[in-house]
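Can't paste images in this forum, so I'm doing it all in text. The chain is below; anyone willing to post the predicted structure tokens underneath?
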Amino acid sequence: MAGWDLLILLAFVAWSVTLGLRARRRASRGLDEYYLAGRKVRGFRAGISMAATQFAADTPLLFSGLIAVAGVYALWRLWVYGLAFLLMGFLFAAFWRRARVLTDAELVEVRYSGPWRLPLRLTKAVYFGLVINSAVLGFVLLAMLQISEIFFPWHAWLPGAPYAAIAGGVASLGIELSTGAAPYAAGLATTNNLISIVLLLVFVGLYSTTGGLRGVIASDLLQFGLAMGGSIAFAVLLLWEVGGPAALVDRVVGLYGADTAARMLSFTPSVEGALMPFLVIMGLQWLFQMNSDGTGYLAQRCMACASDRDARIAATVFTWVQILGRSLVWLVIGVGLLVLYPFTPADTTEATFAASRERTFLVGVAEHLPVGFRGLMVTALVAALASTIDTHLNWGSSYLTNDVYKRFVCQSWLKREATSAELVFVARSASVLVLLAGCLVAANLDSIAQGWRISLLFGAGIGAVLILRWVWERINIQAEFAAMAIAIVAGPILLWAFPADESEWLRLGAMVVVSTGGTVVVALASRRTDPEVLLAFYRSVRPVGFWGHTARAAGDDPATVRSALGATLLGTVACAASLFLALVGVAKLILPRPDEGVLLPILAILGAALLTPLWWRRLTAPEC
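Text version of the structure:
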């Protein structure tokens, strides 16, 4: 990196730290201020913050790899989550806000009755706060390695004696953090990567642990602007280099042939026998997952919003920016990299093909962007890393502080109430603990690969109960325990029965059937939740769906409550259809298949516009 490139990066670091320090005083007033920014966040800011967190540095690399390996249609594995995000916005976002909880684990004691509430709350707090957060942070830190090896050659920048001392310490510890892609020895790569990770973590820790969620959101807005700006600059310069969108498609055809180009640019699977697995995965993956109702940092942003309307807007803005805006830019880049770095059929048989294609994104930045633009793109990648890490530190530590320390240690064990200053101190300390756990995972990531596959199946097992608890009064704590137990037991069995990646749709489908069926049976066969608990929950959250007994007790018409669910789902479906039609229409206009005209893309965009009134009024209504 040249001097101007480094100057852009250092300016971003200084401004982000300043934002965190400016929010320190307000964040220190209590947990609501620290973790929910006083519950006063506007919808647009919360939505962009969600998008910044999802703008992980490894995602554009994943886009590039998927397009080369399977074609554009494989991106539906990422796009289909837009359905879950919109369902969260139109249905669950306001519920999360009205529940007045600090974490999704706390909801257990608001929604259910019985002596098992606290054990379930603790289980979920530890699982999401440490296990899931550590795994995500581990993968994010590994993404940092690929960036560091190309753009941060510390051995060439630092004085010889200090660098040699650091390298000696690293060698004595036996640490290896090299991806094998560096143009220098593995020992140098490990040392460089370790320096980069430490500096990144110190940088993120300075503003995220001091300013809380308010500092995180303020920095997220800046980080998202940089990430999108850098990506757009990369896409525009790439199109300029190849001669424009039409020339880009022509060159793909010239390099790979008309049939292969049509397959790679298609939005539907073209391989015989792939349609059914594709439809099953698309139909189930978005709904049956561990964040199906927004559980996690998405729910945290909704809980932090100033009104129900802001919560709905936050989720919808996030979804449109994530699925439409971000994807179109990365789609251009991914297809452009097919031209800049072509491959042969023989290359696709190599075990490292997918990884090498993902790396072309970083190589393209290094080799094709001029000074200044390269600094912007590298800063964008670092910003993407930082926005993901800061959210997971803040969100992960909220479980340890609110659910473990405040609820279990202080209230249940020590029989006292913690002070606001004490809780904020614990919150900042817990962020460091989550950070250390993530570092441990990154250092031993190979050993948890199988565990990560099981966690995906675990999410498929609990997705149904997370949604049903909001829309069906009969769901009780036994049902949620049953869903978790079935998922834990069935996951390894299904991995053993269907080990091949090609059988993923069978694993997913079997888990959904077994877990959802078991959950419903247990809910119907076990004792109902205390009516007083349900009534208090109903009056505060005002859920919709199948709440017949509770709605009558509250003086409401059960038929009206049921019909409200239908109206909400109609708005969700209309918005999703509008989103996906716009995505496909605009993408096909920019990068048309060789055998397609412009009529269908234009009709798709027109259909997206015509559907907008069906969901816009519901989105912007003050209450619904």
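DSSP finds 27 helices and no strands in the chain. The chain has a mean pLDDT of 90.
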